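Sanity check record (used in CI):
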Amino acid sequence: MSTQASIPTVLQRLHQGTVDWLHSWWRLLHFAVVMFTLALLPSTYGHDKRPLLARHLVADTAPNLAWYGVLSALVSLVLIRIVVVTSQSYGLSRFALEMVVRVLVLELVPLTAAAFVALRTTLPAGLEFAQRRSAGTVTLAELHTEFFPRVAAGIFAVWMLAAVSCVLTLILAYLSLYGFTPWAMAGYTRVVGQVFNPAVTLILVLKIVFFSFAVGLIPMASSFYFGASYRNKVTHGLSDMVRLFAVMLFIEIASLMGNYY
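Expected output for Phospholipid/cholesterol/gamma-HCH transport system permease protein:
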């Protein structure tokens, strides 16, 4: 009897969990629509709001750009060296540059840039803002002054880090393979151009854009709906992190399918 009685309870919990899961994603979609609507309003960039928006953009991008640039350069040099040595040992040196571009520039750099901004900026900022924000209905002024600048700063930071890191990786790849000589530039640009065909370039741009949207929107969506109800910092922080990295994983899988299938 106890086993039979527990079956409805399990089904009820499964149903409630599914409803909560769908509700959370619906609220995220609603918050994204609100933010994109604000982004299209001229009043969002008014004279009184531009300094605050600019301050958030600089504060969330400049420190991350310095740290991530150094870390990205060091990791890129190590991985480039590994790829070059491995290619030479198997007699595949002519494919070394293409492997470096595909592995680092197309896959690792955008993913790590988005994860870096999320862990250092948007997830902590979203949780901190949610804990100190008063409960109740969010006003239009608060959307303009509190939510939109943080979302825009997270999106812009991912764009900037990914762009700078991609260019830096391409420069380091050239220097590691050919040294400080301009005579290999023609062959280098030909191989890189073959990798970055229109389809691959479009997929890379879309991946960075969707990564930035996930990093900028998901942490702030929680604070928009929950506000001061953030009683368990660990639980809600982990929930945002899991949701964010699940979306990033889905985007990465979709980009891999687009590039290689």
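The chain has one domain: 50-260. If this sentence no longer matches the regenerated tokens, the check is flagged for review.
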